TrEMBL record:
Gene3D superfamilies: Hotdog Thioesterase. Belongs to the 4-hydroxybenzoyl-CoA thioesterase family. Keywords: Hydrolase. This is Uncharacterized protein. It comes from the Bacteria. It comes from Viridibacillus arvi. GO terms for molecular function: fatty acyl-CoA hydrolase activity.
Length: 141
């Protein structure tokens, strides 16, 4: 299974009055992880958008396991959980520097035409990208 890693230095502005990372910041970090995965595979979200497509989040699920704090370095691990004709599910772990899992998450996306928001298959837009996602999606044992 192909896993991409993105390190994030936790900024003070990302914490709350308790000194821990505010929950909604993890969603931003998941986006950074997803973008890193796409980049690591040699594809470009920017080019996809320039070609007239966007990939909105249809569903997101996050489980908070262990608090993270200002000054720590978080690692966002991202992979393709599943990839079908219209839907892609990304899997994530956000880790402390010692490997402790802070967050687990999944996000489900579709690809749509930017102008109409009509769903379109990644296979029709970019067959090479589609094939790569099918190749690296997580396989259940």
């Amino acid at each position: 299974m192909f896993v991409s890693n993105k390190e994030i230095e936790i900024r003070y502005a990302e914490t709350d009055q308790m000194g821990v990372v505010y929950h909604s910041n993890y969603i931003i970090w998941l986006e950074l992880g997803r973008t890193q995965l796409i980049h690591d595979l040699g594809f470009s979200v920017t080019q996809l958008e320039a070609d007239g497509y966007v990939s909105p989040v249809m569903d997101i699920s996050i489980q908070y396991k262990a608090a993270m704090r200002y000054g720590q370095v978080a690692t966002v691990r991202t992979w393709i959980e599943s990839h079908g004709k219209l839907r892609t599910v990304y899997g994530y772990e956000v880790l402390h520097e010692d490997g402790t899992v802070a967050v687990t998450a999944k996000s489900e996306h579709i690809l749509v035409k930017k102008e109409s928001f009509r769903p379109v298959s990644l296979g029709k837009v970019d067959p090479i990208w589609d094939k790569k996602y099918k190749e690296i999606e997580r396989k259940e044992a």
